[in-house]
Specification:
By secondary structure, the chain is of the alpha/beta class. The protein is built from twelve helices and seven strands. It has one domain: Alpha-Beta Barrel (TIM Barrel), CATH 3.20.20.370. Strands 1, 2, 3, 4, 5, 6 and 7 form a seven-stranded parallel beta sheet that branches. Bound molecules: zinc ion. Zinc ion binds next to loops.
Length: 259
Amino acid sequence: MDFSLRTYDRLLGTVVGAGYRVLTLRRAIREAAVEFPFILRHDVEWNLKRTLAVTDIEKRHNIRSSLYFRVDTRVYDLPTMARLQEEGFEIGYHFNTLDRCRGDFAAAIALFEREVQQLRDAGLTIDTVIQHGDPRVKKTGYLTNGDILIHDPGLLARNGILDVATGLDERYPNHIYVRDLGVRWDKAESGRQLVEYIRNKRWPAIYMLTHPDYWSESFIRACGLQVAARILRGLSLNRKIAAIKSWCAPRPSGQHPHS
Ligand SMILES: [Zn+2]
């Protein structure tokens, strides 16, 4: 099954076996370009347990990835982030301050700066940040959470943060961006095909994003999520992702986690 942890384990085995060099975003941007880079990123939305299952597999392969943590869900767990950093993972900030400030740019920028500082105060080295996209949040006056970077072009530099998009394009201009969007690979028909592509080194530079929330220990959950994604295929991509996200997200009080 494509999004089971066993498949992830196999996928990483193929990455390493094919001779790719796995990098965090920080290393990819800061260090000299390498041959066959495999830049590995996870957006950590709701579930710490699934994230740790992913990092455990990576440690077994001697791989370290970049993990972008939400600060407004239950994954905001500073001791765990510090431990992962200690183990060599890169911890980054997964920001959605425009959503949370309902499109108020000044408030969203101030909150962004405050939260970066909070993470640093906890001993975390925050060199990179990634915006969170949530199609369920109604956006008034902006398109994405990343719009604060357009509105305030000095925001990253002022806060000592590397510009991921520009940095990657400079270092690896021909990289291919592979994502598990909506519990489906966007650059391959299946996990098996993706593994084949990697084994055959179809792409000389890969930047992969996964969401640990979509990956399952149990075969049944992995099947269920994928079947649901297939049923929803008729919907627009955004609506499909929204539906899957609300299925993955815990709702203890019957309320949306960031409403
Ligand atoms: Zn996200």
